[in-house]
Amino acid sequence: MPNLSLRDPLFATYAIAAALMILKVVAMSWLTVLRMMQTGSGLRSPEDLKKTPLNPQPDPRQLLPDERVERIRRIQQNDLENVPFFLVAGFLYVLTGPPLLLAQWLLYGYVVSRLLHFAAYFTAQIHEVRATLWTVGSVILIFMTVRVLMAALGV
C-alpha cells in the first residue's frame, strides 16, 4: 500500500489530478456568474429580480434562459455527474499500489480528457467529439474501478 503522503510520487500524482479537477469544477461556477453578468440574463429565481446594487434595473426577461449561460451550466452539470466518481475511484486506485507510470497515464489522462471535453463543449463541437472525449475519461474510470475490485477481492 502506498504512503498517503505528498512525498509519495503515486499519491502526489493523485493529489495533483484531484486538485485540478476540483478547481475545474469550481471554475465552472465562476464562469456561470461571469456569463450571467455579461449577458444580464440567466437568473433562475424570482427573488433575483429584486432591485439591488448589482441589479439596479431588474427585468423579468432576466429569468429567461440564455444559451451562453445554459451552455456553461450544462458543462458544470456534466462535471458534477463525472468528477466525483474520479475523485473516489482515483483515490481507491492509488491504494492498490499500481505502477507509478501507469497511474500517471490514467490520472492525468482523465484530467486531459475532461479539459478537452470542456473545450469541445464550450466551443459547441458536435456531439461525437464530446462523446469521444467523455468516453476516454469513462474508460479510465472503469479500468481503475475494476482494478480496485480485483485488488480488494485478491484476484
Question: Can you tell me about this structure?
Answer:
This protein is an all-alpha fold. The chain has one domain (9-153): Membrane associated eicosanoid/glutathione metabolism-like domain (Four Helix Bundle (Hemerythrin (Met), subunit A), Up-down Bundle), CATH 1.20.120.550. 71% of the residues lie in helices and 0% in strands. The chain has four helices and no strands. The chain is elongated and about 65 Å long.
End-to-end Cα distance: 16 Å
- Name of the CATH homologous superfamily: Membrane associated eicosanoid/glutathione metabolism-like domain
Mean pLDDT: 93
CATH level-1 class: Mainly Alpha
Number of individual domains: 1
Query: What's the number of extended β-strand segments?
Result: 0
Category from helices, strands and their pairing? mainly alpha
Low-pLDDT segments, ≥5 res? none
Give Rg in angstroms: 20 Å
Helix content: over 70%
Helix tally equals 4
CATH architecture: Up-down Bundle
**Strand residue content:** under 5%
Topology:
Layout: H1 9-39, H2 67-95, H3 100-122, H4 127-153
Helix pairs in contact: 1-2, 1-3, 2-3, 2-4, 3-4
In short:
With 155 residues, this protein is an all-alpha fold.
Keywords:
155 residues; elongated; mainly alpha; Four Helix Bundle (Hemerythrin (Met), subunit A); 4 helices
